[in-house]
Structures are given as C-alpha cells and as structure tokens.
Write a structure and sequence with these properties.
Blueprint lengths: L2 H40 L4 H43 L2
Helix pairs in contact: 1-2
Length: 91
C-alpha cells in the first residue's frame, strides 16, 4: 500500500463525509438564519424559539435524506472492501 492509495482513500472519505453532512448543515443554517431574522425583527430573545425549529427541521432533513445517506455510505464501504485485494498486493 503506497502513499497515493492512502491519500486517495482519505480524500474520498473526507468528500463523502462532506456530502453526507451537507443536507443537515444547510438545513440547520437556513432555519437558524430565518429564526434569527425573525427574532431580530420582533425583538423576542427566547432560546427555545431558536432550538426547537432547528431540531424539527434537522429531523425532517434526516427523514428525507436518510435513505440516500445510508446508500452512499454502503456504496463507499463496499468500494473500500473491494479495494482490499489490490491494496494488499500493491497493484
């Protein structure tokens, strides 16, 4: 196993992690911004007003994107297992 194979696996791992985190992070960012804007307009500074909608939105994003996320992780893991013989032989 050479250094280019290790770097390739690490790069693919980071990319798949970013792909899987993106729907949840973007949902949380958009909902948090909308709630923050609402709070600044109405001058209501309640902590639960920010937390509860974000938790609900992230839960919905997980329900909607969960199947895709699992299939991507399974595909990535299967490709890693398929690479094991070539990594051990060095070819």
């Amino acid at each position: 196993m050479n250094s280019s194979a290790v770097l390739d696996i690490a790069m693919r791992g980071v990319l798949i992690a970013a792909e899987l985190a993106a729907p949840i992070l973007i949902t949380s960012l958009v909902v948090g911004f909308a709630i923050s804007l609402l709070q600044s307009i109405t001058q209501i500074q309640e902590v639960t007003l920010s937390f509860v909608p974000k938790a609900i939105a992230v839960s919905i994003a997980l329900i909607v994107c969960g199947n895709w996320m699992i299939s991507e992780m399974v595909s990535f893991t299967q490709s890693l297992f398929a690479m094991i013989p070539s990594l051990l032989t060095g070819g």
